[in-house]
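Appendix B, Record 12. Input sequence as logged:
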Amino acid sequence: MILLITALEKAGDFAKALHEATNEVTITASTLHGAAEKLQAQEFSAAVLDQLLLDSDPDEAETVLKHLGTTVPVYVNFAISGLDRLIRELRAALQRRKREIQAAKQEAEQSLRHELSETVTALLLSCEMALQVPDLPAPAIAKMRNVHQLAGTMREKLGCN
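Logged structural output:
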């Protein structure tokens, strides 16, 4: 979803064009206060911000910027930028956001895999050490071997060496 923040009378036309170009629902906000409320209420992939509106009320603009969260800002001066340029910049921003999200997911997955790998290794070593305890009852040996086998299966699924 895209949030178009501008007081221009043609905001509806711009929103329609952005929707057609990106296939994303586009919502408009004609004031910075309204934009801040919408940003608090729902998540947007991008926010197109009219620079003239931002310059008109710097304090309220700061509030809007604080509420962006993961929303990608696209700053536009409608006085000098045409619709084609806006669409190009918006598409580029959305692609950049998509790449950043994918990179963050991969990094989180790699980090989790590393943490789990260390835990599984410790579990396997603990099982092996426990199995070497003299006079360990047979039921305890069987259970420890089951735990060792499960930990080995986890290691394989994690792709650990």
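The chain has six helices and four strands.
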